[in-house]
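CO-FOLDING WORKSHEET

Operator: S.A.
Ligand of interest: zinc ion
Run index: 348
Mode: holo prediction, single chain
Checklist:
[x] sequence pasted
[x] SMILES validated
[ ] output reviewed
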Amino acid sequence: MKALVYNGSGSPSWETIPDPAIESSTDVIVRVDTTTICGTDLHILKGDVPAVQPGTVLGHEAIGTVVEVGSGVSTLSIGDRVIVSCITSCGACQFCRKQMPSHCQAFGATGWVLGNLINGTQAEYVRLPYGQTSTYRLPEGMFDAQALFLSDIFPTGFEMGVRYGRVQPGDVVAVVGVGPVGLAAVATAGLYGASKVIAIGRTRPRIDKAMVMGATHAVSTMDANWMDTVLNLTDGLGVDVAIEAVGVPETLDQAFRIVRPGGHVANAGVHGKSFSLPINDLWIQNITFTTGLVDTVTIPILIDLIKAGRIHPEVMGTHHFRMDSMLDAYSVFEDASQHNCLKTVITR
Ligand SMILES: [Zn+2]
Ligand SMILES: [Zn+2]
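OUTPUT RECEIVED:
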């Protein structure tokens, strides 16, 4: 089969490798029908994720069709169409049983296994360990691009941003960063009754997209007075919940600067650098701070919300490619702002 292979650092290659085969009784082999590229894949290419070995197929998001099942798989059959979770869950370890498969013990320290510790989804086929507890059935009538971003981005914004941020009815919520994860937080903050959802970003097209996806206000940090604008929207008090969705110290600092006493800062961005927590200012303000890797346990809720027409994840799919143009998809995504690209939709 063809697959997108990480070569150590620099450019990946689209090359022929052996088809995956069942290795364990709980394995499922899925034909990848639709996949996408994540910001995390770009981090891997830059060498920021040393656990990824050269030769690994990248990708942890997909919609696919089951083509083979191990002898221990009872709830999936050949031909079933599934949403592949970016988190592999054994369903039995202490963390999986606590609805926290991000720390599934089956492979050691993390449930993020696909395109990290083993071959991932940017390929014609993928082997999914613990396939029946790491996939969700694609509902009849739902098209791939509607559900594709439920593999990772939408649950990340919803779980790490909105749920960890404990958004309550009436809250003013700010989302710092309007890339895919930030937009997913914007799109789901209203579900808990936020009175205002302030999208804070830099570039215009993305801030405008936030308004389409559910933001009530859009603020650009290119404007020198952006913080005053945010404070004016909250009677000068600051926001109840500030969700950080970029993953750099600068935006995390912005989130801490706009939150009111008693408020929450929820980190949903992928951070590669340490950050000096201003604890001397925070303790006296009763601020709580949460971090986390997505569990994807909200995928069933998000499926129901798509069915009900409450969320529309497909609007994030701005650029479409065929799988044999995978390298073109990478070059567009690597230069996403130049191309006004949010997420790619890559079909076989
Ligand atoms: Zn991802
Ligand atoms: Zn587990």
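REVIEW:
The pocket of zinc ion (ligand 2) is lined by residues 89-90, 92-93, 95-96, 101, 104-106 (CB under 6 Å).
The CA atoms of residues 148 and 183 lie 15 Å apart.
[x] output reviewed
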